[in-house]
From TrEMBL:
PANTHER family: HEAT-INDUCIBLE TRANSCRIPTION REPRESSOR HRCA. Residues 4-73 form the Winged helix-turn-helix transcription repressor HrcA DNA-binding domain. It comes from the Bacteria. GO terms for biological process: negative regulation of DNA-templated transcription. GO terms for molecular function: DNA binding. Keywords: Repressor, Stress response, Transcription, Transcription regulation. This is Heat-inducible transcription repressor HrcA. Negative regulator of class I heat shock genes (grpE-dnaK-dnaJ and groELS operons). Prevents heat-shock induction of these operons. Gene3D superfamilies: 3.30.450.40, Heat-inducible transcription repressor hrca homolog, domain 3, Winged helix-like DNA-binding domain superfamily/Winged helix DNA-binding domain.
Length: 344
């Protein structure tokens, strides 16, 4: 669709004014906002033309215009200019997250909490994707006379722990021996290759010791399967209850959908771009017809590993939210990289 410069300027002004006020925008208000020497009647005609093109709509006959889903899409693709964070905002984000920079799971949880607090919407974060990961280190920590914890660390910095129990007394010498065997046999093995058959063949290769280590191999298999799953962390869901854009029934349906983490994970996983914005019906979820999702990928090394996102009404401050997400993704990725480097 080819639009002239004036139409684009009017569309941008309507959307940004509506985002700020939540009120339909009329031609007189636009005259004050635009630095162009045209009459209110000319602007009114241009707004009518934008409505005919499906970019604006008029909620009531006597009201001004508000953007449609199509209008928001054109704005985000062609007109939106992210609002840079201030130095103070960046220092606050870095200072807050640095307190959790030694724990990947807690770091991602706190990043989502911070997003929810900053935006007053719901926020999500996903754990790093580990499908290309290898086993970096396996540690065994005694927790009782017959129990110990297996701690698996992957090449992507993910950490997963599993408890196991034996029918014989454990001590530090036994656990050290088990740990040495596991790291020798399993070190640098891709997680996807740690199948039941692989574990059986590894156990067979160590002879009679495999009888004592059976519970350890079970715990290792469980840890590998679980770390391969992408967990979706959701924070700030109650923020959605207080937004004027949602009616009681619609927000209940939205919250019910968000609790279905499997469906939410599919929605997130379908977005492959570094920055993705789903507006209303673009999500193909009836519960999200009045909702937008803004997603930004964070990277570890040269690969994208997970996602940070914001979920809220289609009337949201996209430029500010995109800037917040991009800076948070940069900070989280950097801190996860440091955790991975320290663990090597």
């Amino acid at each position: 669709m080819e639009l002239g410069a004036r139409k684009l300027k009017i569309l941008q002004a309507v959307i940004e004014a509506y985002i700020q006020t939540g009120e339909p925008v009329g031609s007189k208000a636009l005259c004050e906002l635009l630095d162009v020497s045209v009459s209110s009647a000319t602007i009114r005609n241009e707004m009518a033309s934008l409505s005919e093109l499906g970019l604006l709509e008029q909620p009531h006959t006597s009201a001004g215009r508000i953007p449609t889903q199509f209008g928001y899409r054109l704005y985000i693709n062609e007109l939106m200019k992210p609002k840079p964070l201030s130095d103070e905002e960046m220092r606050y984000i870095d200072g807050y997250l640095s307190e959790y920079a030694d724990d990947p799971d807690l770091l991602l949880e706190k990043a989502a909490e911070m997003l929810a607090e900053m935006t007053k919407y719901a926020a999500i974060s996903t754990t790093p994707t580990n499908r290309d990961a290898t086993i970096q280190r396996i540690q065994l920590v005694q927790t009782g006379p017959h129990t110990a914890m297996l701690v698996l660390t992957t090449s992507t910095g993910a950490v997963k722990s599993k408890l196991f129990r034996t029918n014989y007394l454990l001590n530090s010498d036994i656990l050290r021996m088990f740990s040495n065997v596991l790291n020798e046999k399993m070190g640098s093995v891709h997680l996807l290759n740690v199948t039941p058959d692989f574990i059986k063949s590894t156990a067979f290769s160590i002879g009679e010791l495999s009888l004592m280590m059976a519970p350890v191999f079970v715990a290792l298999g469980q840890a590998c399967r679980e770390v391969l799953k992408t967990n979706v962390l959701l924070e700030g869901r109650t923020n959605l209850l207080y937004l004027p854009e949602y009616e009681v029934d619609s927000v209940k349906r939205l919250l019910h959908f968000l609790e279905q983490r499997g469906e939410l994970a599919k929605l997130i996983g379908a977005q492959k771009e570094k920055l993705g914005v789903l507006i209303g019906g673009e999500s193909n979820q009836p519960e999200m017809i009045d909702t937008s999702v803004v997603l930004v990928r964070y990277s570890m090394g040269r690969q994208t590993r997970g996602t940070l996102g914001v979920i809220g009404p289609t009337r949201m401050d996209y430029p500010k939210i995109v800037s917040n997400l991009q800076y948070l993704a940069q900070s989280v990725g950097g801190m996860l990289n440091e955790i991975m480097d320290v663990g090597v």
